[in-house]
Amino acid sequence: MENGRYGELSPQNAQNLMNLIDQALNSLAVKIENKGGQYIREILYILLTEKAQTTEIAEPLRRVAHRFGIAAESARSSIRYAIVQAWRMGDPNVQYRYFGRSVEFHRGKPTESAFIATVAMALRHEADAYFSRSKLPDDGIPPEMIF
After folding, report:
1. CA–CA separation, 52 vs 49, rounded Å?
2. With contact defined as beta carbons under 8 Å apart, do 55 and 117 qualify?
3. What is the Cα–Cα distance from 14 to 84, expressed in whole angstroms?
4. What is the CATH number of domain 3-136?
5. What average pLDDT does the segment 53-74 reach?
6. Would you list the domain boundaries of the chain?
7. Is 80 exceeded by the pLDDT of residue 125?
8. Could you tell me which of 136, 104, 145, 116 has the C-alpha nearest to residue 20?
């Protein structure tokens, strides 16, 4: 249970928030079955549940690396690989919806920090609206939250 940005989350509400993250990552073709996708998922969860409005990933990256028992640079490398694969395999329309003109699609993918920060900001808006509307009921995420 977290006592941060959204108060104390019940286990079900924490899972609902994780489902929201999973849906966003799935829409962006990030494979959460792979290590890099797992690390991105965990960093996003930390960023969404912290009271601070930050999208800086250095500290969450260190925490996730420690949790998984690896070096931060190894986690960053896995994240980079996950983003490269997602960018190559993903739907350009979905990528554009998240990143807009902030990334030149013919030149390449966003950096690890830019990718995570952008997704975190989009998810924060969705989660804030959801929490203020319903305080995350235990019956799951409503269909309008699906990207």
Report:
1. 9
2. yes
3. 28
4. 1.10.10.10
5. 92
6. 3-136
7. yes
8. 145
What's the length of the chain? 147
Instruction: Provide the pLDDT confidence category of residue 8 given band limits of 50, 70 and 90.
Output: confident
Cα gap 64→46, rounded to integer Å: 9
pLDDT digits 0-9 by tens, 64-121 = 999 999 999 999 999 999 999 999 999 989 998 998 877 666 667 889 999 999 999 9
In angstroms, what CA-CA distances link 2 with 11, 17, 38?
9, 11, 19
pLDDT band at 11 (very low <50, low <70, confident <90, very high): confident
